[in-house]
Amino acid sequence: MTTSVIGYPRVGKLRELKFVIESYFKGDKNQTELLGLAKTLRAEHWQQQAENKIAYISSNDFSFYDAVLDTANLLNIIPKRYQQLALSELDQYFAMARGYQGPKGDVHALAMKKWFNTNYHYLVPEFEATTEIKLVGTKPFDEYQEAKALGIETKPVIIGPLTFLKLAKLPTGQTYQNYQTAIVAAYQEIIAKFAQLGTKWIQIDEPILATDLTKQDIQFFEQIYQAILSTKGSVNILLQTYFGDIRDCYPNVTALAFDGIGIDFVEGKKSLSLLEQYGFPNDKILFAGVINGKNIWRNNYAKTLPLLTQIKNQTNKLVINTSCSLLHVPYTLQSETKLTIAQKAYFTFAQEKLQELIELSQLTKEQDPTLHRAYKTNQTLFTRQREGTNLKIRQKVAALSEQDFFRLPEFNQREKIQKQTLNLPILPTTTIGSFPQTNDVRLNRAKFKKGEISLAQYTSFNKQKIAQCIKLQEEIGLDVLVHGEFERNDMVEYFGESLNGFVFTEKAWVQSYGTRCVKPPIIWGDVSRSKPITVEYSQYAQSLSSKPVKGMLTGPVTILNWSFPREDISYKESAFQIGLAIGDEVLDLEAAGIHIIQIDEAALKEKLPLRKTDWHSEYLDWAIPAFRLVHSKVKPETQIHTHMCYSEFTDIIKEIDKMDADVISFEASRSNLEIIDVLKQNNFQTEVGPGVYDIHSPRVPSVEEINQTITKLLNKIDKQKLWVNPDCGLKTRGEIEVTASLINLVKATKNIRSEL
Q: Any long-range contacts for 213-219 (C-beta under 8 Å, 24+ apart)?
């Protein structure tokens, strides 16, 4: 069996791409330097895979920001507002990704959403009435030839037409059928150009096939691919699926003239049964995704080898593949110096997964693989007990009863009590939590971690920043303040460092969107809290103001979803362990006089199964209770907030209401406030703070712009239930733009209040 990789991390071993792009934004690097670094990274990634003897190496999996945005640019899906800026091609691309405010105009960025059930974000293609789909870009062809010049044959990767159109925002009254002829012609031209270059394989990604499909979707899929494949000539086409099984369309997919089909056997729970039920065509190659592209735990060969045998019983043409792109895991373990040898033995990052692919390939050729050294080494990990077991915590979880998940009194009574107690004006203004992490903040934290300054010095600096932050917010006129989170490196990593059961990396960065990278903690053992985490800074901040200062926590589901989770216990068990720990923190904050506590569940939707039939049984039936567990014991006077990031929440809005928070804030600015209609339709009881401006863009919204947004919100939301806030934390933004934006936010709110 040969091997294949669906895609590789883009940002580089030490986030080189992130830093050069940000330098380009600042004007410190020019386009030539940016393009040069990108070319160097691509070469390194290809050569690394070639050295590990990966047979099917991907190209065009590199991106300066996002592959869906790349596809939009390739196919001429560029809204006029960006074309009218008359920028260079590269700067126009970045304007679509992050907005633009400058001498040539002022435009919003494209909407941003979560990429299926991951923490990666994609840019939503935006069609206009005059949009014409046609091939205009050269990126996939250029990068294929780059690799070819290095002596490396690659399979170029293209986002598939059905996935692209289903994820796009189409003009009112239009469906993807309106674009059938044009999209087919464009993909036929792409394949023809690759044929001219002598390309052997093209990988077309259709992850949408792992979601719930209608008969119309399947019919459209069949029609476009019958046309596309009819002109493919000598080029081999690999249809690649991932993030689940393709139960709705397996027979339809295998009946088409693809030369290879990539199937996920990690998250695809029914992939094997589909294969056994329907068989697999003799004229196609099956690319079997058995190496987990989302998690970092070493593959258990004792489970994977029998699986490969079962797959091989259905086809002799088999390639061992990753389950999805390795974009979702860190680059390499080689950069980690603080993990113990024992810990490292359990983990594989992108580079190490290449070796797993090769070892599995070699073991399949052995008459008795259990005698092979690689197999024996692998199995020592799965037969010995790992450190980190806490029987006391496991007993606590087992003893939870129904009353531990419900808060009394009910929401309507609490709402009245809180309005009397807090005495806030209508349309209360606040922020999501974090303020800009300037160089001095990061330097202070780095010095403390290196032992160059004492805990007292570190804490004193943070308190100075908190005092400045509280003063700034009071001067701006915000109603509910935050302490700024200057002590926090990341909203999940910070809590993980303060809880038992986590281990941490130094360089294990994963791309979240664009230049934003996160370093997920690893849940190593049972989770517990041994002492308060946030109380000292929260209590200090509250002492500086007569206005309420929010206590800021991260919720159990987000901590779980934004960590690399354990695979030896259930997600439910992990979430409840974390929930008990954060619940203790909530009660300590309340006892310290903090009257508003925000428990962020930014990643609530990330592990939501892609198929609705699995939502409750596999996720919501424990994810929603895990959040309720955290705040079920607080007093009615204590107001519980939560926050959710970029995702499509409209389809689980009733479940979100059942979280029983008092206030929820979420992203709405980039999605044009579309979720507001859904809130109204579902009689959403929780008070809401839809983000009134996009913090992922450097542009400063005007007072008039925010005025208009609040007015739109008031047309759909009761003024007694509406909060005014940015759409996310301000950590990544600059101080000047944050101050200007918040001043405008408060001015706009006061204008509206005077009218009310």
A: 213/248, 213/249, 217/162, 217/166, 218/248, 218/249, 218/252
